[in-house]
TrEMBL record:
SUPFAM superfamilies the record matches: Thioredoxin-like
Subcellular location: Cell envelope
Protein name as catalogued: Thioredoxin domain-containing protein
Boundaries of every Thioredoxin domain copy: 334-488
Length: 492
Protein backbone atom coordinates (compact mmCIF):
# COMPACT_ATOMS: atom_id res chain seq x y z
CA UNK A 1 0.00 0.00 0.00
CA UNK A 2 2.86 2.38 0.90
CA UNK A 3 4.64 1.73 -2.43
CA UNK A 4 1.42 2.38 -4.37
CA UNK A 5 0.95 5.69 -2.52
CA UNK A 6 4.51 6.76 -3.28
CA UNK A 7 4.07 5.81 -6.94
CA UNK A 8 0.87 7.84 -7.12
CA UNK A 9 2.57 10.89 -5.60
CA UNK A 10 5.39 10.58 -8.12
CA UNK A 11 2.94 10.26 -10.99
CA UNK A 12 1.04 13.34 -9.85
CA UNK A 13 4.26 15.33 -9.57
CA UNK A 14 5.40 14.15 -12.99
CA UNK A 15 2.09 14.92 -14.64
CA UNK A 16 2.14 18.41 -13.11
CA UNK A 17 5.49 19.15 -14.75
CA UNK A 18 4.70 21.34 -17.75
CA UNK A 19 7.17 22.21 -20.47
CA UNK A 20 9.21 25.27 -19.47
CA UNK A 21 8.36 26.99 -22.73
CA UNK A 22 4.73 27.15 -21.66
CA UNK A 23 5.41 28.92 -18.38
CA UNK A 24 7.40 31.79 -16.96
CA UNK A 25 9.77 30.98 -14.03
CA UNK A 26 7.49 32.77 -11.56
CA UNK A 27 4.50 30.78 -12.79
CA UNK A 28 6.37 27.51 -12.39
CA UNK A 29 7.38 28.41 -8.86
CA UNK A 30 3.80 29.33 -7.95
CA UNK A 31 2.59 26.05 -9.45
CA UNK A 32 4.76 24.05 -7.06
CA UNK A 33 4.43 26.37 -4.06
CA UNK A 34 1.88 24.15 -2.25
CA UNK A 35 4.35 21.23 -2.32
CA UNK A 36 7.30 23.50 -1.42
CA UNK A 37 5.53 24.92 1.64
CA UNK A 38 3.12 22.19 2.72
CA UNK A 39 4.15 19.01 0.92
CA UNK A 40 5.32 15.85 2.67
CA UNK A 41 8.89 14.58 2.33
CA UNK A 42 7.68 11.99 -0.20
CA UNK A 43 5.92 14.62 -2.30
CA UNK A 44 8.98 16.87 -2.31
CA UNK A 45 11.28 14.01 -3.30
CA UNK A 46 8.89 12.97 -6.06
CA UNK A 47 8.60 16.48 -7.46
CA UNK A 48 12.37 16.94 -7.36
CA UNK A 49 12.91 13.66 -9.20
CA UNK A 50 10.36 14.67 -11.83
CA UNK A 51 12.01 18.06 -12.35
CA UNK A 52 15.46 16.55 -12.73
CA UNK A 53 14.06 14.13 -15.29
CA UNK A 54 12.52 17.02 -17.21
CA UNK A 55 15.86 18.85 -17.21
CA UNK A 56 17.29 16.39 -19.74
CA UNK A 57 15.33 18.21 -22.43
CA UNK A 58 16.39 21.77 -21.46
CA UNK A 59 17.94 23.91 -24.15
CA UNK A 60 18.42 27.24 -22.31
CA UNK A 61 20.12 28.35 -19.13
CA UNK A 62 16.90 30.06 -18.02
CA UNK A 63 15.25 26.64 -17.80
CA UNK A 64 18.03 25.35 -15.56
CA UNK A 65 17.92 28.44 -13.35
CA UNK A 66 14.19 28.14 -12.83
CA UNK A 67 14.43 24.46 -11.85
CA UNK A 68 17.45 25.02 -9.61
CA UNK A 69 15.51 27.70 -7.75
CA UNK A 70 12.63 25.29 -7.13
CA UNK A 71 15.00 22.51 -6.05
CA UNK A 72 16.70 24.83 -3.56
CA UNK A 73 13.34 25.69 -2.04
CA UNK A 74 12.54 21.98 -1.86
CA UNK A 75 15.85 21.66 0.07
CA UNK A 76 17.12 19.06 -2.40
CA UNK A 77 20.80 19.97 -2.00
CA UNK A 78 22.22 16.86 -3.68
CA UNK A 79 20.02 17.29 -6.76
CA UNK A 80 20.88 21.00 -6.87
CA UNK A 81 24.59 20.20 -6.94
CA UNK A 82 24.19 17.52 -9.62
CA UNK A 83 22.07 19.71 -11.89
CA UNK A 84 24.30 22.72 -11.28
CA UNK A 85 27.34 20.74 -12.48
CA UNK A 86 25.55 19.94 -15.75
CA UNK A 87 24.51 23.57 -16.23
CA UNK A 88 28.00 24.91 -15.44
CA UNK A 89 29.52 22.57 -18.03
CA UNK A 90 26.86 23.50 -20.59
CA UNK A 91 26.99 27.28 -20.01
CA UNK A 92 30.54 28.15 -18.83
CA UNK A 93 29.98 31.87 -19.38
CA UNK A 94 26.45 31.91 -18.04
CA UNK A 95 24.83 33.18 -14.86
CA UNK A 96 24.81 29.82 -13.08
CA UNK A 97 28.57 29.47 -13.46
CA UNK A 98 29.02 33.10 -12.46
CA UNK A 99 26.88 32.70 -9.33
CA UNK A 100 28.80 29.57 -8.33
CA UNK A 101 32.04 31.55 -8.66
CA UNK A 102 30.68 34.42 -6.56
CA UNK A 103 29.46 32.05 -3.85
CA UNK A 104 32.42 29.67 -3.73
CA UNK A 105 35.32 31.97 -4.55
CA UNK A 106 34.45 35.62 -3.97
CA UNK A 107 32.41 35.35 -0.76
CA UNK A 108 34.73 32.76 0.73
CA UNK A 109 37.87 34.84 0.15
CA UNK A 110 39.34 35.49 3.59
CA UNK A 111 41.27 38.72 2.95
CA UNK A 112 40.38 41.99 1.27
CA UNK A 113 43.14 41.48 -1.30
CA UNK A 114 41.77 38.04 -2.17
CA UNK A 115 38.24 39.45 -2.45
CA UNK A 116 39.41 42.21 -4.77
CA UNK A 117 41.30 39.73 -6.94
CA UNK A 118 38.20 37.52 -7.17
CA UNK A 119 36.01 40.52 -7.98
CA UNK A 120 38.30 41.57 -10.84
CA UNK A 121 38.21 38.00 -12.16
CA UNK A 122 34.41 38.11 -11.94
CA UNK A 123 34.27 41.26 -14.09
CA UNK A 124 36.70 39.82 -16.62
CA UNK A 125 34.96 36.46 -17.10
CA UNK A 126 31.38 37.63 -16.63
CA UNK A 127 31.25 41.34 -17.64
CA UNK A 128 28.34 43.36 -16.31
CA UNK A 129 27.32 44.27 -19.88
CA UNK A 130 26.56 40.60 -20.55
CA UNK A 131 23.91 40.63 -17.80
CA UNK A 132 22.12 43.98 -18.22
CA UNK A 133 19.20 43.03 -15.97
CA UNK A 134 21.27 41.62 -13.11
CA UNK A 135 23.08 44.63 -11.72
CA UNK A 136 21.99 43.73 -8.20
CA UNK A 137 24.13 40.58 -8.27
CA UNK A 138 27.21 42.74 -8.84
CA UNK A 139 26.07 45.35 -6.31
CA UNK A 140 25.93 42.67 -3.60
CA UNK A 141 29.55 41.81 -4.35
CA UNK A 142 30.59 45.48 -4.48
CA UNK A 143 29.00 46.17 -1.10
CA UNK A 144 30.82 43.21 0.43
CA UNK A 145 34.16 44.29 -1.04
CA UNK A 146 33.67 47.91 0.06
CA UNK A 147 32.83 46.81 3.60
CA UNK A 148 36.00 44.71 3.68
CA UNK A 149 38.08 47.76 2.70
CA UNK A 150 36.25 49.86 5.31
CA UNK A 151 37.10 47.34 8.05
CA UNK A 152 40.73 47.64 6.98
CA UNK A 153 40.45 51.42 7.44
CA UNK A 154 40.80 52.09 3.72
CA UNK A 155 37.94 54.57 3.23
CA UNK A 156 39.21 55.71 -0.18
CA UNK A 157 39.02 52.24 -1.75
CA UNK A 158 35.70 51.51 -0.03
CA UNK A 159 34.20 54.69 -1.48
CA UNK A 160 35.74 54.03 -4.89
CA UNK A 161 33.93 50.70 -5.14
CA UNK A 162 30.66 51.98 -3.72
CA UNK A 163 30.51 54.58 -6.47
CA UNK A 164 30.34 51.81 -9.07
CA UNK A 165 27.04 50.41 -7.72
CA UNK A 166 24.25 50.39 -10.31
CA UNK A 167 20.93 49.92 -8.53
CA UNK A 168 19.95 53.15 -6.79
CA UNK A 169 17.10 51.54 -4.83
CA UNK A 170 19.58 49.15 -3.18
CA UNK A 171 22.61 51.45 -2.98
CA UNK A 172 21.97 52.50 0.60
CA UNK A 173 22.46 48.90 1.71
CA UNK A 174 26.06 49.19 0.59
CA UNK A 175 26.71 52.76 1.71
CA UNK A 176 25.19 52.59 5.19
CA UNK A 177 27.20 49.62 6.59
CA UNK A 178 30.43 51.12 5.26
CA UNK A 179 29.58 54.50 6.81
CA UNK A 180 28.72 52.82 10.11
CA UNK A 181 32.05 50.98 10.10
CA UNK A 182 33.94 54.21 9.43
CA UNK A 183 32.01 55.99 12.19
CA UNK A 184 33.00 53.25 14.64
CA UNK A 185 36.61 54.02 13.69
CA UNK A 186 36.01 57.72 14.38
CA UNK A 187 36.20 58.66 10.70
CA UNK A 188 33.26 61.06 10.41
CA UNK A 189 34.92 62.90 7.51
CA UNK A 190 34.57 59.95 5.13
CA UNK A 191 31.40 58.55 6.70
CA UNK A 192 29.33 61.73 6.38
CA UNK A 193 29.11 61.93 2.55
CA UNK A 194 28.27 58.21 2.38
CA UNK A 195 25.44 58.66 4.85
CA UNK A 196 24.15 61.61 2.84
CA UNK A 197 24.02 59.52 -0.34
CA UNK A 198 22.10 56.77 1.46
CA UNK A 199 19.78 59.33 3.04
CA UNK A 200 19.15 61.24 -0.20
CA UNK A 201 18.47 58.03 -2.14
CA UNK A 202 15.95 56.87 0.44
CA UNK A 203 14.33 60.33 0.49
CA UNK A 204 13.98 60.25 -3.29
CA UNK A 205 12.05 56.99 -3.18
CA UNK A 206 10.02 57.78 -0.09
CA UNK A 207 8.81 61.08 -1.57
CA UNK A 208 7.62 59.57 -4.86
CA UNK A 209 3.88 59.87 -5.60
CA UNK A 210 2.07 56.84 -4.22
CA UNK A 211 1.18 55.52 -7.67
CA UNK A 212 4.90 55.37 -8.55
CA UNK A 213 5.97 53.44 -5.46
CA UNK A 214 6.78 49.90 -6.53
CA UNK A 215 8.43 47.24 -4.36
CA UNK A 216 11.88 48.63 -5.10
CA UNK A 217 10.83 52.10 -3.94
CA UNK A 218 9.29 50.73 -0.76
CA UNK A 219 12.43 48.72 -0.04
CA UNK A 220 14.66 51.76 -0.53
CA UNK A 221 12.45 53.89 1.72
CA UNK A 222 12.88 51.44 4.61
CA UNK A 223 16.48 52.58 5.10
CA UNK A 224 15.57 56.23 5.57
CA UNK A 225 15.41 56.33 9.35
CA UNK A 226 18.77 54.57 9.81
CA UNK A 227 20.74 56.76 7.43
CA UNK A 228 18.92 59.91 8.56
CA UNK A 229 19.55 59.19 12.26
CA UNK A 230 23.25 58.54 11.73
CA UNK A 231 23.67 61.63 9.52
CA UNK A 232 21.78 63.93 11.85
CA UNK A 233 23.65 62.53 14.85
CA UNK A 234 26.86 63.81 13.26
CA UNK A 235 25.28 67.25 12.84
CA UNK A 236 24.19 67.22 16.50
CA UNK A 237 27.68 66.23 17.68
CA UNK A 238 29.04 69.13 15.65
CA UNK A 239 26.53 71.47 17.28
CA UNK A 240 24.75 72.06 13.96
CA UNK A 241 21.31 71.82 15.59
CA UNK A 242 19.42 74.02 13.12
CA UNK A 243 20.59 71.93 10.16
CA UNK A 244 19.70 68.76 12.05
CA UNK A 245 16.16 69.94 12.82
CA UNK A 246 15.72 71.07 9.22
CA UNK A 247 16.61 67.59 7.94
CA UNK A 248 14.39 65.82 10.50
CA UNK A 249 11.35 68.00 9.91
CA UNK A 250 11.78 67.58 6.17
CA UNK A 251 11.76 63.83 6.74
CA UNK A 252 8.66 63.88 8.91
CA UNK A 253 6.67 65.62 6.18
CA UNK A 254 7.11 62.75 3.71
CA UNK A 255 7.52 59.92 6.25
CA UNK A 256 5.57 60.63 9.43
CA UNK A 257 5.75 56.91 10.25
CA UNK A 258 9.49 57.41 10.90
CA UNK A 259 8.80 59.68 13.89
CA UNK A 260 9.74 57.09 16.51
CA UNK A 261 12.97 56.12 14.75
CA UNK A 262 14.03 59.78 14.53
CA UNK A 263 12.91 60.76 18.03
CA UNK A 264 16.30 60.44 19.73
CA UNK A 265 18.17 62.75 17.37
CA UNK A 266 15.14 65.06 17.19
CA UNK A 267 14.93 65.74 20.91
CA UNK A 268 18.71 66.25 21.13
CA UNK A 269 18.51 68.79 18.31
CA UNK A 270 15.59 70.61 19.95
CA UNK A 271 17.44 70.82 23.27
CA UNK A 272 20.39 72.30 21.39
CA UNK A 273 18.05 75.00 20.06
CA UNK A 274 16.54 75.54 23.54
CA UNK A 275 13.14 74.30 22.33
CA UNK A 276 12.65 72.51 25.63
CA UNK A 277 8.91 71.96 25.62
CA UNK A 278 8.98 70.23 22.24
CA UNK A 279 11.92 68.10 23.38
CA UNK A 280 10.08 67.26 26.61
CA UNK A 281 7.02 66.08 24.68
CA UNK A 282 9.15 63.78 22.53
CA UNK A 283 10.94 62.37 25.59
CA UNK A 284 7.62 61.74 27.30
CA UNK A 285 6.45 59.78 24.28
CA UNK A 286 9.68 57.75 24.18
CA UNK A 287 9.51 56.98 27.89
CA UNK A 288 5.87 55.96 27.59
CA UNK A 289 6.96 53.41 24.96
CA UNK A 290 9.53 51.83 27.26
CA UNK A 291 12.71 53.71 26.40
CA UNK A 292 13.65 54.25 30.03
CA UNK A 293 17.20 55.19 29.11
CA UNK A 294 16.00 58.76 28.49
CA UNK A 295 14.83 59.22 32.09
CA UNK A 296 17.76 61.37 33.26
CA UNK A 297 17.15 63.84 30.44
CA UNK A 298 13.38 63.68 31.06
CA UNK A 299 13.89 64.53 34.75
CA UNK A 300 16.09 67.48 33.85
CA UNK A 301 13.55 68.90 31.41
CA UNK A 302 10.71 68.25 33.87
CA UNK A 303 12.54 70.28 36.53
CA UNK A 304 13.41 73.04 34.06
CA UNK A 305 9.84 73.39 32.80
CA UNK A 306 8.08 72.98 36.16
CA UNK A 307 10.56 74.73 38.41
CA UNK A 308 10.95 71.66 40.68
CA UNK A 309 10.58 67.84 40.76
CA UNK A 310 7.25 68.05 42.63
CA UNK A 311 4.81 65.54 41.13
CA UNK A 312 7.42 63.72 39.05
CA UNK A 313 7.02 60.33 40.76
CA UNK A 314 3.28 60.27 40.09
CA UNK A 315 3.90 61.41 36.52
CA UNK A 316 6.47 58.63 36.07
CA UNK A 317 4.19 55.97 37.56
CA UNK A 318 1.36 57.00 35.25
CA UNK A 319 3.60 56.69 32.19
CA UNK A 320 4.67 53.18 33.20
CA UNK A 321 1.11 52.12 33.89
CA UNK A 322 0.04 53.42 30.47
CA UNK A 323 2.84 51.39 28.90
CA UNK A 324 1.84 48.26 30.78
CA UNK A 325 -1.77 48.62 29.66
CA UNK A 326 -0.62 49.27 26.08
CA UNK A 327 1.45 46.07 26.12
CA UNK A 328 -1.46 44.05 27.52
CA UNK A 329 -3.70 45.33 24.75
CA UNK A 330 -1.01 44.63 22.17
CA UNK A 331 -0.35 41.03 23.23
CA UNK A 332 -4.02 40.15 22.86
CA UNK A 333 -3.40 40.36 19.12
CA UNK A 334 -0.79 37.60 19.49
CA UNK A 335 -3.00 35.16 21.37
CA UNK A 336 -3.49 31.65 20.08
CA UNK A 337 -4.10 28.23 21.60
CA UNK A 338 -2.87 25.06 19.96
CA UNK A 339 -0.55 22.17 20.83
CA UNK A 340 3.10 22.99 20.26
CA UNK A 341 4.79 20.58 17.82
CA UNK A 342 7.12 18.24 19.68
CA UNK A 343 10.86 18.57 19.12
CA UNK A 344 14.15 17.06 20.20
CA UNK A 345 17.14 19.11 19.12
CA UNK A 346 20.82 19.31 20.01
CA UNK A 347 22.27 22.22 21.96
CA UNK A 348 25.75 23.69 21.51
CA UNK A 349 27.21 20.94 23.73
CA UNK A 350 25.65 18.19 21.63
CA UNK A 351 23.07 17.37 24.30
CA UNK A 352 19.47 16.54 23.39
CA UNK A 353 16.77 18.96 24.55
CA UNK A 354 13.13 18.05 24.03
CA UNK A 355 9.88 19.89 24.57
CA UNK A 356 8.56 16.85 26.45
CA UNK A 357 11.32 17.21 29.03
CA UNK A 358 10.16 20.77 29.75
CA UNK A 359 6.53 19.96 30.49
CA UNK A 360 5.42 21.85 33.58
CA UNK A 361 7.39 24.93 32.54
CA UNK A 362 6.52 27.99 30.51
CA UNK A 363 8.85 27.82 27.51
CA UNK A 364 9.94 30.83 25.44
CA UNK A 365 11.18 29.93 21.95
CA UNK A 366 13.14 32.53 19.99
CA UNK A 367 13.89 31.57 16.35
CA UNK A 368 16.95 33.43 15.07
CA UNK A 369 19.98 33.35 12.74
CA UNK A 370 23.41 34.97 12.90
CA UNK A 371 22.70 36.97 9.70
CA UNK A 372 19.34 38.30 10.97
CA UNK A 373 19.94 41.85 12.23
CA UNK A 374 16.48 42.29 13.83
CA UNK A 375 17.12 39.04 15.72
CA UNK A 376 20.47 40.30 16.97
CA UNK A 377 19.09 43.73 17.90
CA UNK A 378 16.52 42.06 20.14
CA UNK A 379 19.07 39.93 22.02
CA UNK A 380 20.01 42.48 24.73
CA UNK A 381 16.31 42.77 25.56
CA UNK A 382 15.86 38.99 25.54
CA UNK A 383 18.93 38.66 27.74
CA UNK A 384 17.41 41.11 30.23
CA UNK A 385 14.10 39.23 30.14
CA UNK A 386 15.84 35.91 30.73
CA UNK A 387 17.85 37.37 33.61
CA UNK A 388 14.65 38.61 35.26
CA UNK A 389 13.44 34.98 35.40
CA UNK A 390 16.78 33.46 36.43
CA UNK A 391 15.39 32.48 39.85
CA UNK A 392 12.14 31.08 38.45
CA UNK A 393 12.46 27.31 37.85
CA UNK A 394 9.16 27.27 35.96
CA UNK A 395 10.36 29.38 33.02
CA UNK A 396 12.77 28.25 30.29
CA UNK A 397 14.21 30.31 27.40
CA UNK A 398 15.38 28.45 24.27
CA UNK A 399 17.02 30.19 21.32
CA UNK A 400 16.40 28.14 18.17
CA UNK A 401 19.11 28.74 15.57
CA UNK A 402 17.52 28.26 12.16
CA UNK A 403 17.86 29.17 8.49
CA UNK A 404 21.65 29.54 8.65
CA UNK A 405 23.17 30.07 5.21
CA UNK A 406 26.72 28.81 5.79
CA UNK A 407 27.59 25.13 5.93
CA UNK A 408 30.00 25.75 8.82
CA UNK A 409 27.23 27.23 11.03
CA UNK A 410 28.18 24.88 13.87
CA UNK A 411 31.44 26.79 14.12
CA UNK A 412 30.02 30.27 13.60
CA UNK A 413 27.03 30.03 15.95
CA UNK A 414 29.01 29.09 19.12
CA UNK A 415 31.63 31.72 18.21
CA UNK A 416 28.91 34.37 17.91
CA UNK A 417 27.35 33.43 21.26
CA UNK A 418 30.73 33.34 23.01
CA UNK A 419 31.90 36.63 21.47
CA UNK A 420 28.80 38.44 22.75
CA UNK A 421 28.76 36.59 26.07
CA UNK A 422 25.09 35.61 25.72
CA UNK A 423 24.01 33.13 28.43
CA UNK A 424 21.52 31.49 26.07
CA UNK A 425 20.51 27.85 25.66
CA UNK A 426 20.87 27.56 21.87
CA UNK A 427 19.42 24.64 19.92
CA UNK A 428 20.21 23.81 16.28
CA UNK A 429 17.14 23.56 14.06
CA UNK A 430 18.69 21.00 11.70
CA UNK A 431 16.64 17.88 12.45
CA UNK A 432 13.87 17.21 9.92
CA UNK A 433 10.66 15.47 10.77
CA UNK A 434 10.72 12.06 9.02
CA UNK A 435 7.08 12.35 7.97
CA UNK A 436 6.88 15.91 6.68
CA UNK A 437 10.54 16.51 5.88
CA UNK A 438 10.23 19.85 7.66
CA UNK A 439 12.56 21.42 10.17
CA UNK A 440 11.22 22.84 13.42
CA UNK A 441 10.70 26.37 12.07
CA UNK A 442 8.48 25.03 9.29
CA UNK A 443 6.53 22.85 11.72
CA UNK A 444 5.83 25.91 13.85
CA UNK A 445 4.73 27.89 10.80
CA UNK A 446 7.59 30.39 10.92
CA UNK A 447 7.59 32.60 7.82
CA UNK A 448 10.08 35.19 9.00
CA UNK A 449 12.53 35.72 11.85
CA UNK A 450 12.80 36.74 14.60
CA UNK A 451 9.79 34.68 15.62
CA UNK A 452 8.90 34.01 19.25
CA UNK A 453 6.50 31.50 20.79
CA UNK A 454 5.31 31.33 24.38
CA UNK A 455 4.34 27.77 25.35
CA UNK A 456 2.41 27.09 28.56
CA UNK A 457 3.08 24.37 31.15
CA UNK A 458 0.80 21.92 29.34
CA UNK A 459 2.63 22.26 26.03
CA UNK A 460 0.23 24.63 24.26
CA UNK A 461 1.28 27.66 22.24
CA UNK A 462 -0.33 30.66 23.91
CA UNK A 463 1.38 33.51 22.04
CA UNK A 464 3.17 33.90 18.72
CA UNK A 465 4.93 37.12 17.70
CA UNK A 466 7.19 38.11 14.82
CA UNK A 467 9.55 41.04 14.45
CA UNK A 468 11.11 42.75 17.41
CA UNK A 469 12.23 45.97 19.03
CA UNK A 470 15.80 46.99 19.90
CA UNK A 471 14.35 48.57 23.08
CA UNK A 472 15.65 46.54 26.04
CA UNK A 473 13.15 47.81 28.61
CA UNK A 474 10.18 47.31 26.30
CA UNK A 475 11.16 43.72 25.44
CA UNK A 476 11.67 42.94 29.12
CA UNK A 477 8.21 44.28 30.02
CA UNK A 478 6.55 42.61 27.03
CA UNK A 479 8.11 39.22 27.87
CA UNK A 480 7.01 39.60 31.49
CA UNK A 481 3.38 40.16 30.46
CA UNK A 482 3.48 37.25 27.97
CA UNK A 483 5.06 34.80 30.41
CA UNK A 484 2.87 35.72 33.37
CA UNK A 485 -0.22 35.41 31.19
CA UNK A 486 0.91 31.98 29.95
CA UNK A 487 1.32 30.84 33.56
CA UNK A 488 -2.40 31.28 34.09
CA UNK A 489 -4.90 28.61 32.95
CA UNK A 490 -6.33 29.16 29.49
CA UNK A 491 -9.84 30.56 29.72
CA UNK A 492 -10.99 29.07 26.44
Amino acid sequence: MKDMKTTLIFALALSATVSYGQQKPADRYQQYLPIITEGSAAQKDSLATALVGEAKSYKTEAEYRSTLNILRNLEQDAKVQDLEKIAVKKFPKGAITRDAFIQNTFYKAETTAAKEKAYNELLKKWPVKNFPDEGLTYDYAIATLAQSFAKDGNAAKATQYLETMQERFWRGNGYLPVATTLLAQGDTTNATPLLKVAMDDAYYFISLPEEQKDNKARFAAMGYASSMSAYVDILVNRGQYAQAVEQIEKALVVAPQQADALSTVYYKSLIGLDRKLEAYNILTRLYAKGQFGVEDQLKKLYADLNGSMTGYERFNANLKEELKQSIRTHIKEMETFKPAPAFELLNLKGEKVSLASLKGKVVVLDFWATWCQPCIRSFPGMQAAQASYAADPDVEFLFINTWERDKDYKTKVPAFIEKNNYPFEVLYDDQKDPQSGQNMAAQYGVKGIPAKFIIDKEGNIRYFLTGSSPNVDYIKMEMHELIESAKKPHKG
